[in-house]
Amino acid sequence: MLNNVEILIGMAALGFTALVVFSLYKLRQKKRVRRVEGWVKDYLVFRYGELPNPLSINCSNDALWPVLVAFEAPLTRIRHSLQLTFGGVYSTLKLLSEKEENR
Fold it and tell me: What is the reported pTM?
């Protein structure tokens, strides 16, 4: 009987540890997404002088996938679609592609 209790306690501790590790992993991914969105907004403000409105930033939790950005340029109202990538921990922004579309 004592072995069963020890096994149950061990399984509960293992489950709790897995839950904590998974929660920390998800929190780290959310912080990355917020950081990348901030870098994209800074880039657009630098490029256009103001933040475009409406702005859509689609950033995956996966660092290998590009960030998709869609917006209308503030002065010309031309629709832009950008694909950006980030090389590492720091804000190494690289433009992969850009499309413009008149409305």
Answer: 0.74
